[in-house]
Amino acid sequence: MKRFVYINDDEASKELCCDNRISNTKYTLWNFFPKNLLEQFSRFMNQYFLLIACLQLWSLITPVNPASTWGPLIFIFAVSASKEAWDDYHRYLSDKKANEREVWIVKHGIKKHIQAQDIQVGNIVWLRENDEVPCDLVLLGTSDPQGVCYVETAALDGETDLKTRVIPSACVGIDLELLHKMKGVIECPIPDKDIRRFDANMRLFPPFIDNDVCSLTIKNTLLQSCYLRNTEWACGVSVYTGNQTKLGMCRGVAEPKLTAMDAMIDKLTGAIFVFQIVVVMVLGVAGNVWKDTEARKQWYVQYPEEAPWYELLVIPLRFELLCSIMIPISIKVSLDLVKGLYAKFIEWDVEMVDQETGTASYAANTAISEDLGQVEYILTDKTGTLTDNKMIFRRCCIGGIFYGNENGDALKDTQLLDAITSGSTDVIRFLTVMAICNTVIPVRSKAGDIIYKAQSQDEDALVIAAAKLHMVFVGKNANLLELMFNGEMLRYEVLEILEFTSDRKRMSVVVKDSQNGKIILLSKGADESILPSARAGQHTRTIAEAVEHYAQLGLRTLCLAWRELEEDEYLEWSVKFKEANSVLVDREWRIAEVCQLLEHDLYILGVTAIEDRLQDGVPETIETLRKAGINFWMLTGDKQNTAIQIALSCNFISPEPKGQLLLIDGKTEEDVSRSLERVLLTMRTTTSEPKDVAFVIDGWALEIALKHHRKDFVELAILSRTAICCRVTPSQKAQLVEILKSCDYRTLAIGDGGNDVRMIQQADIGVGISGREGLQAARAADYSIGRFRFLKRLILVHGRYSYNRTAFLSQYSFYKSLLICFIQIFFSFISGVSGTSLFNSVSLMAYNVFYTSVPVLVSVIDKDLSETTVMQHPQILFYCQAGRLLNPSTFAGWFGRSLFHAIVVFVITIHAYAYEKSEMEELGMVALSGCIWLQAFVVAQETNFFTVLQHLSIWGNLVGFYVLNFLFSAIPSSGMYTIMFRLCSQPSYWITMFLIVGAGMGPIFALKYYRYTYRPSKINILQQAERMGGPILTLGNIETQPRTIEKDVSPVSIRSPVYEPLLSESPNATRRSFGPGAPFEFFQSQSRLSSSSGYTRNCKDN
Predict the structure, then answer these.
(1) What membrane topology does this protein have (predicted)?
(2) Do 686 and 693 form a contact (C-beta atoms < 8 A)?
(3) Annotated active-site positions, please?
(4) 233 by DSSP, 3-state: which?
C-alpha cells in the first residue's frame, strides 16, 4: 500500500485529511464513565462483586443493607477511576501543549504562523535552529549550501548523538525564494512505525525538474519530536501528521505482564470461590430442610403455606451474599497502591543513583516489583551493559605488522609513528579508512576545538585515534570530506555510502580523491564479513591470527579494507545502486544485493583492536547474584573469544579446572547436531559434579539448533546455569528469552542499546541501562538503572522486600475476610440456618474500608532483615525464588488461622453474651471487637521491623475503631444507638476481649517461639543475630540441586506443587521448581547434594 502526497497543494491533498492533532488520551469527557466502567467490569472479580451488589437490592434475600457492598464497591471503583482520570488529564495537558505550539508554514506562497495541530499533509513547514519537528517531514532545503542539517533524535530513539540529514538530490540548487512555490508529488508507504526506514520516491513538477524520479530514504526525513541543531533553518513537506507519524504509530499501551504472585493469587481466589459455592450449596440445602421441618414447629416463625417457585433459592442466595466477603473486595486496590509505593522506593533510593551522570533509577512498570525477588535467569548484553562502552583504541595490525603489543598502546608505538612519518602506503590507507569510513560529524566548539559526534562509540574511538596519529578529520561539507595529515589538506568527495546493517556486518564508502581523481572503496567490518571478500592471492592468515589474538585479550576487532575502482565499473554499479534505492518493496534486501557486487576483491589493510573496559562492580555483582541462585546468559553480537574473555574477567564463568566451557559450532545441520549431542552428553554426565559448566554457541549454529534441534537445545538450556551466545541478532536474543520462559523460569533481560529492545520486552522483567548508546533500552524497559551494579540492589533489596510484603498483604486480605465470614457461617447454625447476618450493615462496610486496611498498608515499610544483612547473604533470595511465602500450603495456614480465630471469637462471644439479655447488635459488636483485637495482634506478630508509624497504624487503628463506634452509637438512626457506650461500661466486655486475644494468639505465639527456638530457619538465625547485636553468621554459598532431565521434554509446562505449613520455614521445604521427592536443602554443602534427587523442568514445545 502507498499514498501520494502533493507538495504545497491543498486541493490535491484533501483526501489525506488527517490533521496534526496529537492525542494520547485514553478517554474523552463524554466516554470517560462508560468506557472506564466497561474496562473495570471486564475483570472477573469486579463482575462478581457487581452481581453480589445487585442481588442485595432484592429485599427478600438480602441479610444486610445493600450499602455494605455498594459502599466499598463504589469507593474502590472511584479510587480506580480517579487514578485513571488523573493520568489521562496529564496526558491531555501534554497533548495540548504540543498541539498549540506555533509553527511556520507556507501557504499560497506566503509564510504564516499557525498552531502545530493545524498542519495538513502536503504543507511546507519551516523550522529554525533548536525547533522541535512538529510532524514527519521530507527535507526540501536547509541553510547549508550543500543541503545538510543536523538533528537530535533522543526523544525518538534515545540516541543522544547528532545525526546528519540531507535534502534529496532533486532539491539541490533550488533557491530559497523558489522553495515557497515548489510543486511535486511524493510516493510513499502508508503510515508505519519503523523509525529507521522510509522507502519513497519524489518527483518535482516543472519548472523545477522535468519529472525525474528521485529516491528518498530515512536520511531525507525529519521525524516528529526530533530537534533541529547546528542549522540556522530547514524546511520540509509534511508526509505524516498527527497520530499517523512514525512516533504516533509507535505509541500504544504495552501488554500488561502477569507476575508469578499475581498468577498464584488468581488461583487462590478461584479456589476460594469454589469453596464458597460448596459452602453455599450445603448451607442452602440445610436451611431449606430446617425450614420445612423444624421452623414450622416454632410459633414465632411464620412461613406461608404456598410459596412462589423461587422460594427454594432464597436461602442459598442469602448465604451467597453472606459468604461473598470470602473474596476481599479491596485486594486489587490495595495491591495496586502498595506496588506503586514499591516503585517509588526504587526511584527514591539514593544508593541507586549514578554519581557520574546523576542518573537515578526509574520504574516504568509499577506492577511487577515482586517478580524481581523471584528472578531465576538473567540474560544480559555485553557492550555497554557489562562494559563501560568507553572505547579506547589500543592495538592494531597493519600489513602483517603488530603495533602496540609491547606497551599495550599503539598510539605510543614508535614503530607505528615511524611508519607514519616515512609515509608507508598501507599505514596511510589504514588511517584514511579509520578517519572517513564512518558517519561521524566533526563540529567546531566555541574554543575552536574539533568535537566528533558519532552514532557509534567504535567509530568515535577510531576517528580520535586517527587524529592522534596525525590523520585529523577536520570538516564535512555535504559530500566533501577534509582531512589534515602532517600539515597537508586532503579532500575526498563522498560518492556513495553503503550503510552498515546487522546482516551485512560491514560498512563501506565510495569516495573520489580530489588530488588525483581516483575512485576508491573503503570498507570496515567484522572479520567474517571482510576476510571472505579478500582479493585472490592475498594471504589473510596473519590478519586472522591477529583477530584471534586480540579477541583472546578481550578486545573488539574490526577489519579495514581498500579497493580502487575503475570509473566505468563505478558508473555501471551506480546505476544499479540508484535503481535499488528507488524500489519501494524489499529495498533493504535489494540494496544489500547490489552492495555485494562492489564489495569484493578487497585489499585487506589490517585490524583494529579496541578496548571496552568493564563497568565498576560488575564482577562483584555477578558473583553475588550467582550466590543467590540466579543463572546468567550473555547474549552478544561480538566475537566468541572476546565474549569469553569478558565472561572470565567478570566472574561470569570460572576458569579451569573449576569451570568448563563446551563449544557448540558448525555451519551445517549435521555439524551442529553432532556438536549439540556431544555437549548434551557432557552436561548429563557432569550435573552431579561440583563444576561450573557453561556452553558457548554462535548465531549461525544457534539458528540451526533452534530450527532443527529445538527440543535438544531446550534440554541444554535447562541443564546449563551459564551460556555465552555470540554473534546473535536481536531476534535471536528474544527467541532465547522465550525458550527460558516456556520452561517456566522467571527471566530478567538487561541491555543498553536499541538492539536489546526486543529481548527486554520479551522477558518477564526488562531492565534498561541509561548508557552511551542512548535511552532506547531504558525507555522500552520496566526498570531503568544507571549502572549494571545497581542490579544487585534492585533484586536483593527491592525485589525481595516487595515479594515478602506482597505475600503478607495478599494472604492477610483473605484472612480478615474469611474470619468475618466464618463467624457468619457459625452464627447460622444457631439462627435456624436462615442466612441471617450477625453484623449490621455499617459494621460490615467499615470493616473492609476502615478497620482492617490501615495497619496492613503500613506493612510496605516492614523489613524482616536489614539491607546490609540481605546484601551480605544473597543466599536467602532462594526463599523468594521457591515461592516460600505465598503458595497453597502457606495459604492453607492462613485459612486455618482464620478458621481457628473465628471459632475462638464465636465460642467465647456466645458463651459470654448469648445467654444474657443481650440484643443481637450487642452480640455482633462484641464479635466484631474480638476480630479487630485479634487482627491488631496478628499484624503486630507478623511485623518484623517496628517504627513509630507502624505502632500508630496498629494501635491507633484500634483506638480509631472505638472512636468511630462511639460516634455511631451516638446517632439514633444508625442502628447502633448507645451499644458501644453500654458495652464499654461492662467489665465482662473487656474480660471477653482479653480471653479472645489470649485464646486466639496464645497458640500462635507458642508456635512461633517453638520455631525460633528449636527449628529456626536461616532467616530466623539472621534475625536473632541482628537483634542480639552479635556477629552475623556466615551461611556459606547455596548451590542448587543437580538437574536431571526427562528424555522427552513434555509439551506442557507443569510446576510441582509446594506444601509447607504456616509459620514453618523448615530447610526441608520444597522449592517450587523441583519435582516431588526432591527436597530443596537450602543450606547444605555441595557434598551432601544427592544426585539421585531428580530435578524436572517441563517445557512448552513451541
Answers:
(1) Multi-pass membrane protein
(2) yes
(3) 381
(4) strand
